[in-house]
TrEMBL record:
This is Uncharacterized protein. It comes from the Bacteria.
Length: 152
């Protein structure tokens, strides 16, 4: 078996060319118990300034995306790509992970704590995910399987 086969799987028979025959998944990985947290590093008032509940300004960042919020969540994983639905949340609210807070996370756990960065309005809007469940769901669009971000 070659390296390509090891990485991407061996040659398999195609079941069907029609994507409408594919099974639609109702839920992928689920982000749940999302909470607003305070990172230990915000205690340094020379580097961070409290703007409002849970939102901090990074005083060393000159960019418009200098505002920070820290969230914690549990990931109920289906062993698929764990970057989703977080990646879709980042896209929806125009945010980025500014710090993975490795010192505040346990690598053996399904609980994560991350610092997100963005401009002030986007950070404020993103607070609507606190206390919600977030996941991706398949849907058919003109015969193509697409994925939708669900926040409930």
């Amino acid at each position: 078996m070659g390296i390509f086969d090891k990485l991407f799987g061996g040659k398999k028979e195609k079941i069907s060319d029609s994507s409408s025959n594919q099974e639609l998944r109702m839920e992928y990985n689920i982000m749940k118990n999302i909470s607003l947290e305070k990172s230990q590093k915000y205690e340094n008032t020379e580097l961070y300034e409290l703007v409002e509940n849970g939102i901090y300004k990074d005083l060393n960042d000159d960019d418009d995306a200098k505002y920070r919020i820290t969230i914690a969540y549990e990931l109920e994983s289906d062993d698929s790509n764990n970057q989703y639905p977080l990646e879709d949340v980042l896209d929806k609210y125009y945010l980025h992970v500014s710090d993975f807070l490795e010192s505040e996370n346990n690598t053996e756990s399904n609980k994560y704590k991350l610092e997100l960065g963005g401009d002030l309005n986007d950070i404020k809007k993103s607070k609507e995910i606190i206390g919600k469940r977030i996941f991706n769901r398949d849907f058919l669009d003109e015969g193509q399987v697409r994925v939708n971000l669900i926040i409930e």
